[in-house]
């Protein structure tokens, strides 16, 4: 039972368990390899390691609340999925398109750099591909771009290395969690859903896509 495992933890470890449980519920993904802006290099995320060491404890505890915890050691991703498909996150149309493009860039760049699980991009590259593919007719406002990228960063799908979110020449890291949000099977479905939108959404009633803890749904 999870209670027995929990009681074996030290006081500080119990506090870390509580904190990281809430972090998982809030952000869905925990990534193993992250960029340390102070050190200027990639490093192993201690939060990932703590959950990995106590994976059975986290899994059992969350299971009682209707959550399933997954760990992919190859890509270094821990993610949480709701068994009842509750706790959906709404993405507006602009954010959905950016998410789709990030997945395309990730796939294209990953073929060039086979030793890394992350892919480097920029806001300029994202916007260029959006326009090239005809997914948008004009560049979104800086506010919309920033808002979309911030939301995706919150869920540990991307990480900003430098520059402002809306700056074309900034540096953004696309994290391997993108593979679990937009799977290969769903790329075409998302493209079709976006392509069917003939008009832009009204400001007070934005079109949106649902994300179910690690999955994009139509």
Count of individual helical segments: 9
Could you tell me the number of beta strands?
A: 11
What is the CATH level 1 assignment of the largest domain? Mainly Alpha
From the spread of the alpha carbons, the general shape counts as globular
Q: Tell me the β content.
A: 15-25%
Distance between the termini: 37 Å
Secondary-structure element order, N to C:
HHEEEHHEEEHEHHEEHHEE
Number of discrete domains: 2
The Cα radius of gyration reads: 18 Å
Strand order of the largest sheet: 1-5-4
CATH topology of the largest domain: Arc Repressor Mutant, subunit A
Major beta-sheet overview? 3 strands, antiparallel
Supply database-style keywords.
218 residues; alpha+beta; Arc Repressor Mutant, subunit A; 2 domains; 3-stranded antiparallel β-sheet; 9 helices; 11 strands
Task: Provide an overview of this structure.
- The chain is an alpha+beta fold and 218 residues long.
- The chain has two domains: 2-82, no CATH class; 89-217, Arc Repressor Mutant, subunit A.
- Helix content is 44%, strand content 22%.
- The chain contains nine helices and eleven strands.
- The strands form four sheets. It has a three-stranded antiparallel β-sheet. A three-stranded antiparallel β-sheet has the order 6-10-11.
- Helix 5 crosses helix 6 (123-132), helix 5 packs across helix 7 and helix 5 (93-110) packs across helix 9 (184-195).
- It is globular.
- The termini are far apart.
């Amino acid at each position: 039972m999870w209670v027995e495992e929990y009681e074996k933890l030290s006081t500080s470890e119990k506090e870390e368990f509580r904190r990281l449980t809430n972090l998982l519920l809030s952000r869905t993904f925990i990534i193993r390899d992250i960029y340390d802006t102070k050190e200027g290099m990639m490093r192993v995320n201690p939060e990932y390691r703590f959950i990995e060491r106590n994976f059975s404890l986290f899994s059992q505890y969350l299971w009682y609340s209707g959550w399933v915890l997954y760990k992919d050691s190859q890509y270094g991703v821990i993610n949480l999925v709701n068994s009842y498909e509750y706790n959906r996150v709404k993405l507006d149309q602009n954010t959905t398109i950016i998410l789709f493009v990030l997945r395309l860039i990730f796939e294209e760049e990953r073929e060039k750099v086979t030793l890394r699980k992350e892919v480097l991009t920029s806001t300029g590259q994202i916007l260029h591909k959006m326009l090239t593919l005809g997914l948008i007719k004009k560049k979104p406002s800086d506010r919309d771009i920033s808002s979309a990228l911030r939301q995706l960063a919150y869920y540990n799908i991307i990480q900003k290395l430098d520059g402002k979110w809306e700056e074309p020449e900034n540096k953004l890291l696309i994290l391997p969690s993108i593979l679990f949000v937009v799977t290969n099977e769903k790329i075409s479905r998302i493209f079709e859903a976006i392509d069917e939108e003939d008009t832009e959404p009204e400001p007070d009633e934005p079109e949106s896509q649902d994300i179910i803890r690690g999955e994009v749904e139509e």
